[in-house]
Amino acid sequence: MNFSKQLIYWYLINKRDLPWRTTDNPYYIWLSEIILQQTRVDQGMAYYFKFVENFPTIKDLADAQEEHVLKLWQGLGYYSRARYLHFSAKYIVNEHNCIFPSSYNTILKLKGVGDYTASAIASICFNEPTAVVDGNVYRVLSRYFGIFTPINSTNGIKEFKKLAQQLIDVKKPGIHNQAVMEFGARMCKPQNPDCNNCPLNDSCFALSKNSIKELPVKVKKLKIKNRYFNYLVIHSKSNTTKMVKREKGIWLNLYEFPLIETSEPIDKNQLIKHEIFNDLFDSKELNVKLFTREEKPHKLSHQHIFTKFWIVKTRDSKNFNNSWDDIEKLPVPALIDNFLTQYKSN
DNA sequence: GACACGTGGGG
DNA sequence: TCCCCAAGTGT
């Protein structure tokens, strides 16, 4: 048996029952693929059910408000996925008469859909023999064939795509693609792969050369940047507060309290002298108190955010138009959501 | 080509 | 604790 046939054989016996594996509706496959980008199945599952329930069709998704879509996505991270999902749903409704595009090239035109996702949908839903190359595929191929080209180099990306394309079973590309990925996720895992029970263990380069731990090769480490956030949790005279929509960078279009970002940690004296702080308030009669919480930074993959939540009580009410009930409906980053949970329990 | 973009689980 | 990383894409 060749590589593909062995993996498909293994897959048909060992695959998990996942909800998107019982449908060939391209909308649901698309949805699942977007949710699963850089995301574990266990983490994404609940979101898949939420979206299918709230938006059973592409039209339902297209008709939704972005705020609603982001609220359902809250907590999953990489929020551009949700914005592009919504954007592309509107595009399919308006430009494709609600019909999901049915070829690799036309699927690739969707925002938020790159080579991987277009290949996955085209193969699974439309039987087009386009090979997927995701983290699992890089790992499986690099180990089995002994390829030391860095997977995140331009050459590596080309080389692995070419190899994957040569290996694909053109008769059942969808099954083949899912088999390689499932095999990578369950058998040829990053740590402690189950080589003893691996159906390919008599012909695996890395196993025979004892180089499992060296593969796949990945270059570069991104440097973590530290950022210092000061959120103003305002209580107005009438006990309203203020949330603002983020307009750039991380958490785009999600909501947060008024933010003062500094290059270093600041104390209360520095805070109340800050221009942004003073522009917010007319009254000088303010009660400013630091909300005590853990010093743990909010860790993102590329930055650590050190946050102080300042509770500010003011006699003003102008511009502080959000009720505490209203803000529950707004999409917020996990950092804000975690704070609100702690704050309310106090 | 390098970097931005989240969150949570596991060793 | 720290680091890796998980069905990537856009700029």
TrEMBL record:
Catalysed reactions listed for this entry: Hydrolyzes free adenine bases from 7,8-dihydro-8-oxoguanine:adenine mismatched double-stranded DNA, leaving an apurinic site
InterPro entries from the UniProt entry: A/G_AdeGlyc_MutY, DNA_glycosylase, HhH-GPD_domain, HhH_base_excis_C, MIG/MutY, MutY_C, NUDIX_hydrolase-like_dom_sf
Domain of life: Bacteria
Keyword Metal-binding: yes
GO molecular function, one term: 4 iron, 4 sulfur cluster binding
Role played: Adenine glycosylase active on G-A mispairs. MutY also corrects error-prone DNA synthesis past GO lesions which are due to the oxidatively damaged form of guanine: 7,8-dihydro-8-oxoguanine (8-oxo-dGTP).
The protein, known as: Adenine DNA glycosylase
UniProt source species: Lutibacter flavus
